[in-house]
Each structure stands twice: as C-alpha cells, then as structure tokens.
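BUG: 3D viewer hangs when loading the predicted structure for this chain

Environment: internal workstation, default settings.
Expected: structure renders.
Actual: progress bar stalls at 90%.

Input used:
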Amino acid sequence: MEEEQTRQSRRIEKMQEKYQVGNHNKGGTAFNIINLDYEKSKEGEFLKQRDGDKEVRTLLRSKHIDMLSNNGYNLVNGQSRSTVAVPEHKVYNPPGSSGSTMGKAGA
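Structure tokens produced before the viewer hung:
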C-alpha cells in the first residue's frame, strides 16, 4: 500500500515537471501585471536584476549620445547643461569610473 502511494506521488511529480500539470492560471514570467511587482522567488529576483541592468544600459546610451552631439552649455541662455544621471552599476558604470571613452575615438 505504501509502495503504491510513493509510486503515485512520483508519477504526479513527473507529470507536473513534464506537462506543467496544475499551472493553468500561472503566468509564464515572474512578474505580476496586476500589482506591477516581481515575484518573491529566484526567477523574480533574476528578472528584476535584468530589468535594472537594461535601465542602466539605456541611460548610458542616452548619456553617450548626449555627450557626442551636444555642447556642455545651453546655446539659448548660456547656462551649463545638466547631463543624464546614470546610477552606479558594478558592470556597466562601476563606481570611480571616469566615464566613456567613446568621445575620444579617433583623437
């Protein structure tokens, strides 16, 4: 009898793994679109980190385009322009970095 129960429970576990049985109303991502929050799981933390990395890359791209195409001051009123603020990131914008070398290309 006990052997039958363990076999049945193993069968159910395999079906859940292979056929996603019991996950009919569960979303495919670790983000809840109703409350706009990440799930409290490993996948949710990974997705949150990926989205944060994407945001830093986007701001860096904006800053590089701004540096290469605009002056350091406003031509209309002569005041200095504010640059795009990029948060520190361990890979894309590490603390203490001197910034991009894109503007020095070909110099």
